[in-house]
UniProtKB/TrEMBL annotation:
Lineage of source species: Archaea, Methanobacteriati, Methanobacteriota, Stenosarchaea group, Halobacteria
Biased composition (Basic and acidic residues): 139-148
Family statement: Belongs to the metallophosphoesterase superfamily. YfcE family.
The EC number(s) this enzyme carries: 3.1.4.-
Keywords attached to this entry: Metal-binding
Species: Halobaculum saliterrae
Superkingdom: Archaea
UniProt-listed Pfam families: Metallophos_2
Record's protein name: Phosphoesterase
Domain Calcineurin-like phosphoesterase: 2-140
Cofactor(s) recorded in Swiss-Prot or TrEMBL: a divalent metal cation
CDD domains with a match to the protein in the record: MPP_YfcE (cd00841)
EC supergroup of this enzyme: hydrolase
Keyword Metal-binding among UniProt keywords: yes
């Protein structure tokens, strides 16, 4: 399983709880789409996850900016996932970012609003924020590989899966 997080905005720990904590511990890999906020949060998440791929967000401190890239591409079970915190050009910019990297899925954060959008050329996934939802539902993403591509869901820390989605994966 691939777990997708974003927007922790903490100073001293990962703030994981419930299903989100269990999912991170069970995952083959975890993607964090930025705004850890402080370096201690990254360190704490790395202790829980077997493999963690992070990018910086607009609120991350200098120590995080030295350790993490602004964007990255992650391979998962034959799928290509492009990760960036945000695009100043909105959804169009995120789709272009994904196309330029031949991605099957673009993961992003910033709004704290969990959402999946497959209306463009490349599907977009924002897992929201499990720790600081800011008026939205707290959430993270859980993704698995199927014969057809990727199957995923947005899940609350209490374990409620409130949106399911699928992403076709192109053959190499």
């Amino acid at each position: 399983m691939l777990v997708i997080l974003s927007d922790t905005h903490a100073t001293d720990g990962h703030r994981l709880r419930g299903r989100t904590l269990d999912a991170v511990r069970e995952a083959d890999a975890v993607i964090h789409a930025g705004d850890f906020y402080r370096e201690a949060v990254l360190d704490d998440l790395q202790r829980e996850a077997s493999t963690l791929y992070g990018v910086t967000g607009n609120n991350d401190d200098a120590a995080l900016r030295e350790r993490l890239p602004r964007d990255r591409v992650v391979g998962y079970e034959g799928a290509t996932v492009a990760v960036r915190h945000r695009s100043r050009s909105g959804a169009t910019g995120l789709v272009m970012f994904g196309r330029e990297r031949d991605a099957d899925l673009v993961v992003f954060g910033h709004s704290h609003r969990p959402e999946f959008d497959d209306s463009g050329d490349v599907p977009l996934l924002n897992p929201g924020s499990y720790a600081q939802p800011r008026g939205n539902r707290p959430a993270h993403g859980e993704v698995t590989r199927t014969d057809e591509g990727l199957a995923g869901e947005l899940v609350t820390p209490d374990g409620e899966a409130f949106e399911r989605f699928s992403v076709p994966v192109r053959s190499p």
